[in-house]
Amino acid sequence: MSKPEDSGRSGTLASFQELLLTVVKSCSSIDTRDYELASATRLLAELRPATLRLLGEARSLLGSLLDVCEIQQRPYPVTRSMPPYDRSEVSDRRFERAVDAAVAANRASLAAIEEIAFIAQLELGQRAERLERVSMSLDTAELLSECDSSLRRSRKSLNAVGLSIARAIGVPPLAEYRSELENSLAVRRALKKFRKRVTKGGDPAPHQLRDRFRYIANQIEILVSWDIYSGMRVRDRLLLRSLQQRALKWLQGVNATPEAGLRLWQDIAACLEMFALVNRRQELVEHDTALLTRCLSALEAQPLDSPVDPALIQQLSAAEGLDLELDALLERPALEVQSLRAVLEALTKPAAASDESASGGEPW
């Protein structure tokens, strides 16, 4: 039989679950895609104050939760495992990895709730301070990126706290929690599908440009409509929007010469090449290195002319979008060990050597 104080503690924490979900829904109701073509003036007048308001609500709620955790832990002392978290010494993506690590620890305790809530409150406080300081001197991309990141981190951290509460009181979570690895894998799959569609047919001849640009503009619109689009960096989203606008202007007859069209196609092709940098995200580097090494080890025990085990091919589907040659192999109806081994051996070297510092901080 549970003690009365245990029942009271669960009821208090359960009420926080509902409050956290309310703020998460409010953050999700602001679609930053609607502001990608907006002016800095509109961003400052609409998006910035709305983001600051939600950051304030999230921080206030987290503060109240931390107070409850501290009070409730007094009769039940615990050893805090909370690591020092100095926002000034970490990269933007370190916050996501810190929260993912805390969630992955799968601890059902008040200390686990407090750890995530503390990290989240500190991060969101830093985000609010940065947004408070922005002015018209900040370019549109930076301002949109600040607001988008603040809203995304608010959703992520509140969902993580909600999950930790659910574990502590033994109830299902009210919202889904998605790790950075899950998000990055989904982004990579989406970009692979987009790249495959856009490059179908190879480089266009001058007489094919009109049909190709009409198709590309439509494919960008489709990509923008996908939920995972918000997982892309704001600057890359803005680049896609810019290319879409240029394609539409060319179709409308603005500088619609074959030479200008071919230059635009080259810029689109360069953008697609740049998207491969998603593979430098630290969580993807670690995931791919482990996956490819494990699969290569399994292949080394098999005859070179034998067919690849379908179960192994299924495992490798998690690397979809990592490499064009690997993607092509995995789409074959029949695949021999020798062919797959050669590709995996070539991939394991750069995958093991890549790291986030190679691109100067946040890689993509």
Written overview of the protein:
Helix content is 68%, strand content 0%. With 364 residues, it is mostly helical. The chain folds into three domains: 4-177, Four Helix Bundle (Hemerythrin (Met), subunit A), CATH 1.20.120; 181-274; 282-359. The longest helix is centred in the N-terminal third of the chain and has 34 residues, at 40-73. The model is unreliable at 1-5, 75-91 and 351-363 (pLDDT under 50).
Brief characterization of the structure:
With 364 residues, the protein is mainly alpha-helical.
Query: Oligomer, anyone?
Result: single chain
Number of helices: 13
* Gap between N and C termini: 52 Å
Protein structure class: mainly alpha
Please tally the β strands and state the result.
0
Q: State the shape.
A: flat
CATH architecture descriptor text of the largest domain: Up-down Bundle
How much β-strand is present in the residues?
Answer: under 5%
What count of domains describes the coordinates? 3
| Average pLDDT number | 87
The CATH topology assignment of the largest domain is Four Helix Bundle (Hemerythrin (Met), subunit A)
Low-confidence stretches: 1-5, 75-91, 351-363
CA-atom Rg in angstroms? 24 Å
